[in-house]
Amino acid sequence: MRGEIARIMPFLFSAMISYPSRAQTRPLPDLINPLDAPAQVLDLSRLGLPSGDSRDTPVAPDDAAGSSQPEDRRLVRRGVKLTLQDQKELYLAPFQHSNLKWDVLLLAGTGALIATDRRIEGHLPGGNLNIYSNASNIALGGTAGTLALMWTYGLKTHNEHLKEMGSLEIETLVNTFLVYTPMQFVAGRQRPGEGNGYGDFWRHHMINTSFPAGHAMFTMAIATVVAHEYPKPWVKVLAYGATAAVIAGRFLAHDHWASDLLVGPALGYFIGSHIFHSHCNPQFNEGCHRSTQDVDHP
Hints:
This protein is an all-alpha fold. The chain folds into two domains: about 1-20 and about 60-95; about 95-295, Vanadium-containing Chloroperoxidase, domain 1. It has eight helices and no strands. It has helices at about 10-25, 60-90, 100-120, 130-155, 160-185, 215-230, 235-250, 260-280. α2 (about 60-90) packs across α5, α5 runs antiparallel to α8 and α6 (about 215-230) runs parallel beside α8 (about 260-280). The chain is globular.
């Protein structure tokens, strides 16, 4: 379904702006003296009905726009269906037998870090924390901006590989948000320096809390997609290097506990890898193990 959603808005926009212009060209009846008004010949062409030999009558623009509306609604429904399918697979993946070892490692590491979060936090340097926070924001913004420019260039030059990368990045961000948001509400963890300074859970009932680390999670997710799409060493160094800069900046700025910065990137990597392997095109990448029959076509 690559690029399908982007075609919906032009059809709707053209339909909205074309109707008033057509309406202004139609003569209005004399409402003051209707009986005195000259009788008008019924023009079937203005009603969009065939008159005489309809084989030579071109299809009205209204008919083409009308026929595209069900198709647009179908594309939207398909996009929602695919997103729900991705969410189902993502939430069930930890329970697959092949992933149990990774579950154990992540849970053990998270538990160990939660137990030592305060001790680790106490050894971090102080000073002007805004420097670290700004460096993290620059790394995240630079990564996202670069990928957006690459996608735009792919759209303008009809580069199918870049177009696929951009589409997968959007799908990854959507699915990452749908995993990140409920975890934020459920965990509700205090950031370093909040409350009693212990990093207590279940203290907030909103997003933008400490667990999991959102900046690191989203950066890792999009970096994983581009590293899979273009598996060259220098691409991986840039992508994962930017992610490391985001993680380090958020950590040194005292924005997150160490355990937050383990879980966030781990989930981001898992989501980005899953979206790539679920929707990639094997014609572009040898690392894609899908068959060509399973590829989503517009």
